[in-house]
From TrEMBL:
SUPFAM superfamilies: P-loop containing nucleoside triphosphate hydrolases. PANTHER family: CELLULOSE BIOSYNTHESIS PROTEIN BCSQ-RELATED (PTHR43384:SF4), SEPTUM SITE-DETERMINING PROTEIN MIND HOMOLOG, CHLOROPLASTIC-RELATED (PTHR43384). This is Flagellar biosynthesis protein FlhG. Transmembrane segments: none annotated. The lineage of its organism: Bacteria, Pseudomonadati, Pseudomonadota, Gammaproteobacteria, Lysobacterales. GO terms for cellular component: cytoplasmic side of plasma membrane; cytosol. It comes from the Bacteria. Keywords: ATP-binding, Cell projection, Cilium, Flagellum, Nucleotide-binding. One of its GO terms (molecular function) is ATP binding. InterPro entries: CobQ/CobB/MinD/ParA_Nub-bd_dom, MinD_FleN, P-loop_NTPase, ParA/MinD_ATPase. It comes from Stenotrophomonas indicatrix. GO terms for biological process: negative regulation of cell division. The keyword Isomerase does not apply.
Length: 295
């Protein structure tokens, strides 16, 4: 079970040190999926690496707390993970390692049952602890677990944008709809970006998005869906996974890499937050301090 040291994070966290100028706000993007096997983690990892390659100061958080594998996909060997942070053995800064293109990675542990069973207050505490991070950042990509567990919902709620990854399987569409419904009704997340993954051609991606849109328009009138793009299934992507390298770095001219790079260009244009939204939010202290400076 989590240590007493970590329990402090559920109620308080150290504020950033006094600086001549406060750290700027961070655009946080949660990448999630209704079911496992849709390629969510590959999208997250490659999106973050692509953004870093564009000059964006990018942090990639592995928030699949029980079955983490961002470090495996990127060929990294972390000394510390979020499990060590939770146990009180290190700080958040001690967990961060550098990955391809200079992307900063916050790895989690795999096979740690207690990490998959954190209490709701501990998920909020994990969000809050990012306010103590003394790093200049532009974007954080959060790779959540699949499904509708409290951790998934909290991390999506705490981000400015939620990207739902779907593939052309009936269960994927059904589960994506279920996730969007719960996010909207229980957490007030009513703006969703959609990525169609593992498609045969761009038309299939658009058709898949339209299927999901029709269901949401019928039953979730308050939810706004936006098509962020599609990623084709190709041999280069499969090979990059086997070699533990991001496809955007290993095979930048491949169809899958070009597609993810285009998605990264679109997300790179999103503006940093200027106002707190109320409730749980990553890097909330930065938004509040930046607002105070602007005033």
């Amino acid at each position: 079970m989590p240590s007493r040291e970590y329990a402090k994070l559920t109620t308080t966290f150290p504020l950033t040190a006094t600086r001549s100028e406060p750290l700027g706000p961070v655009r946080t993007i949660a990448v999630t999926g209704g079911k496992g096997g849709v390629g969510k983690t590959n999208v997250s990892a490659n999106l973050a690496v692509a953004l870093a390659g564009m000059g964006k100061r990018t942090l990639l958080l592995d928030a699949d707390l029980g079955l983490a594998n961002i470090d495996v996909i990127l060929g990294l060997s972390p000394t510390n993970t979020l499990a060590d942070l939770v146990a009180g053995r290190c700080s958040l800064d001690d967990v961060i390692i550098e990955g391809p293109n200079g992307v900063l990675v916050v790895p989690a542990a795999s096979g740690r049952r207690h990490m998959a069973e954190l209490a709701p207050a501990e998920h909020v505490g994990l969000v809050n602890v990012f306010s103590e991070l003394e790093r200049e950042l532009d974007i954080m990509v959060v790779d959540t677990a699949a499904g509708i567990t409290d951790g998934v919902l909290t991390f999506c709620q705490a981000a400015q944008d939620t990207v739902v990854v779907v593939c052309d399987e009936p269960a994927s569409i059904t589960d994506a709809y279920a996730l969007i419904k719960v996010l909207s009704r229980e957490r007030g997340v009513d703006r969703i970006q959609v990525v169609a993954n593992m498609v045969r051609d761009p038309n299939e991606g658009r058709v898949l998005y339209e299927k999901l849109t029709r269901v949401c328009e019928k039953f979730l009138a308050d939810v706004s869906l936006n098509y962020l793009g599609c990623v084709p299934q190709d041999d280069w992507l499969r090979l990059s996974v086997q070699r533990q390298q991001p496809v955007v770095k290993a095979y930048p001219s491949s169809p899958s890499a070009l597609a993810i790079t285009e998605i990264a260009r679109r997300t790179a244009r999103w503006q940093a937050p200027t106002e707190p939204r109320g409730g749980v939010e990553f890097f909330l202290e930065r938004i509040i301090k930046q607002r105070g400076v602007a005033a």
